[in-house]
Every structure is written in C-alpha cells, then in structure tokens.
Amino acid sequence: MGKKAKLRREATQNFLVLLKTERDDSWLQRDYYEEINFNFEDKRDRLVHEFLLTEQSYVRSLAVIINVWKRPLEEMLQQELFSFITDAKIHDIFGNIQDLYNVNEQLLIGIHTIIKDWSNTKCLGEDLRLFAHMLKFYTMYSKDYPRACDILGECVDNEEGFNDFLEETKMDPLCHGLDLRSYLIMPIQRIPRYRMLLEEIVEKTNQDHPDYQDLVTVLELVKQVADKVNTAVTEAENMDKLYRISKKFTNEKDFQIMEPGRKFILQGELMKICRKDNQKRVFFLFNDCLLYAYKGNKFKVGQVFYLNRAIIKDLPDSDEKKLYNAFQIIGGSKSCIVFAEDANEKNNWITLLYETIAELKSAYGTLQNAEKTQSVQNFAPVWVPDSQSKACSICASKFTMTHRRHHCRQCGDIVCRKCWGKKKELPNQGRVRVCEMCYDLPVSTSVEEIATALHTYEAPVSDDPETQKLSFRAGQSVRILERDNSGWWFAAIDNQTGWVPASFFNPV
Prior knowledge:
Blueprint (H helix, E strand, L loop, with lengths): L2 H20 L20 H36 L8 H8 L2 H20 L8 H8 L3 H23 L1 H11 L9 H5 L1 H18 L8 H35 L17 E10 L4 E9 L2 E6 L5 E7 L4 E4 L11 E5 L4 E5 L3 H25 L6 E2 L30 E2 L6 E2 L7 E4 L3 E4 L2 H4 L9 E4 L24 E6 L5 E6 L2 E6 L7
Antiparallel strand pairs: 1-2, 1-7, 2-3, 3-4, 5-6, 6-7, 8-13, 9-10, 11-12, 13-14, 14-15, 15-16
C-alpha cells in the first residue's frame, strides 16, 4: 500500500469514528413511526394494519440507505477520502432513492393519519391513488438497478477505504447486520409486495364500500408497474446471488462469476474421481457453465466447463468398477467422472444439466443460423484412475516407485514413460504428450458428430432392430453416425444405436 493510500485509509477510519458520535438520528423519532394498536373487527382491518406496519418498516429502510450510506459517502467524497469514487458513481449506486423516500414518506404520513383514527368505514384509496401515479419513480429505479450493482462492485474492487466503510456500516445497529446490497434491492422487492397486499385488501372489501372503486383503480396501476418491474426483480435477485457466491471465492483473474447474462441454477457437492483417489468437490451450475471448486476458507476454482461445448454422459452402475450414481462431464480441455450420493441427486443434476444445455443450444441456434456439432476427438478424454491400472496399457510393464504412470492426453489411458514421450497438437489442449498408439492416429477424421437434443423424445416400442428408434431427453448428447434427407438420423446413445428425429436437434 502506497503512502497516499495509507494516509487516506487512516483518514477514512477517523471519519467513521467521528460519524458514529456526531450522526443525527432524530429522524427515527418521527410521528409516523409510532405504533398504532386498535381492535380488529375483520380480516380487512388486519390487512390494513399489516399494510401500515410494512410501510413503516420500508420507509425506515429507505431512510437508513440515505442516512447510513448515501450522505456519509457524499461527505467522505467532499473530504477527498476517495481516489476512485466520484459524484457520478455515488449517483449511479443510489439512483433516485431520495425520490422514492419522499414519495413513500408522504404515503406513510397519509395512511398513518387515517389509521390512527380507524374505523371500518374509513378509506385508504384516495391516498393510495395519489401514490400510484408516482410509481414511475420505481420503474426508473428498477431500470437503473443493474448498473447500480455493477458500479458498486467496481467501487468495492478499486477503493480500499470503501470496503472499510461498508464493513463498518454493516455492524451499525440500524442495519440489523444487512449490507448495502441487501438494502438497495428492497425498492424492487416492494412493488410485488404492494400488489399482493392490495389484492388481499380488495378481496376483503365489499363492493358497496366507498373505498372499493379507488382500491381497484390503484391495484390496476400497481399491476402495470409490477409487470414492468418483475423482470428487474428476477435479474436483481440473480445478481445478488451471483455477488454473494463470488464473495465466497478467492480472487480469480481468469474466471469472473459476475458476468452479464449469467444466471445461477444449482450448487451441490459431488465426488470427483481423481488420479489417486476420489475427492469431494463443490459444483456450481450456471446457465452457461459448470464449475467445480476446492473447498477451504474460501472456494478456489478447479475447472470450468462451458456448456456450449460440453457433453454430459450418464454412466450405468458397475459392481466391477464399484461405480454407482455416476456421470461423465466431457469438456474441450478437461473431462472427468463424478458420482452423487444417491440416484435422486444424480438424476437431479443430469436433468438440470440436460435442460440447461438444451436451452443454451437453442439460444445459440437463434443467434446463429446453424449449430455446428463437434468431432468426438475435439473433447478431452476422461483419465483412467491410477488405481485401475497396475501396468502400462501398451507394453504391459508393471508400475513401480521409479517406473511411474503417465496419462495420454488423447485417449486418457495410463502408460509408462517409454510409451508416452511424443508430443502432438490436440484441439483445445495445445501441444501435449500422447501415447505411442495415439501419436499416429489422425486427430479429427472421426465421422462421428456430437449433437445436443433440444427437446425430449419418447420412442415407440419396436421389435425390428433396423427401424428401432431411440428415446432421449432435452439436453442429452447424442453421437450422430449417419445423416440423410429422410428427417431421421442414425445415432448412438450410450451402448444403443437407432434412429432419432433430426428436427429435435439444431441443424448440422
């Protein structure tokens, strides 16, 4: 850390100490936060009371964003405590949060006044109708939210004093242990909550009640905004998940979890068959890739399989190999075998992988005119575990402490050094060592092609092997052995061969 950075960090810490002692929290004592107790006559009364309680909590949260984070950051900027953060970045992070606070504060004042002197004939509709016409501020906020998350991430990565500030404020009693990201997503989550509460209040309000028509009008306006915000809600929640996952990893320069368009799908532990023994790895499935990580104080990326060029192959249980609930992950530069704890877990992983690959291939097919299938030799082989080979597969010489095992990068078999020394250029792997048997074999002359199914197909039962059709699931990889213009391809799935409908795959 340079001298200027060190001085700036010390100044930031001094500012945070001063902030705790001099901050004005008088806003917490405002009248509209006062708790109101009244006798509930019916379900409608309870729902109205719930509306008030949730609105009090929400407005308080908006005030926390402004008083705990936004204003102190603006003061720190004025005192030149930042080298990376600017006025524009602070504006991008918080957007129009002040407008949201002003609008919702007025709503809270109105409904608090009404409910303070509540009876079953009182109406909320007029105040809510005035508020509903200001919901355009929420549309603006939700539209800008993804950029706010990006800028917040940039500030965390590039401004050391900002990290100190975020950690310190997270411990503030007003924040209840939640960080800034957890608060910034609240306005986006609030609109669906309004819709749900209003639907219930309208349902419990008699049609001849003076409040009914206004409530129906407000509900329709909220629905319109909610439909626009729903996409932002989904994206916001996904970005929040990606961010929280990324914080569990060590800093990875070659692979960034937070990427535009990436969506989190599943996390779980699987046993990976390694050279010497089986190792437990944590797998993360996203809509574009599958990665496994080494577990420690923080996760470390082990391997990333990009699904647009990966194959998932189901493996039958084998008593001979003591292999149960297993499947292969075949990638361009690395491949492996993993197994789950039970059949249900395995099926869940395979189903999700097949579905994700099918969706990805379908999207690629939309963006591109044709989906190119890949030669089977364009994929890395699965290495034979050390424990399954006592001797070289070519010369049969036994392995010892000095006569060691080596894996061929083309076929994955285990050979001795004598049968392994030559180098060869392989797709996605570069110039690597292969065994004597593979050295003279062509790399990409295989007529077999790998295609990924876009849809599930259930084949009819047939006794004729020449017309036998094969069943498959969306996302499953199929070896195409023969193609013609009949609309059917001759293919292989696992150890079975038969016909598959060409229209269920992207054009090749």
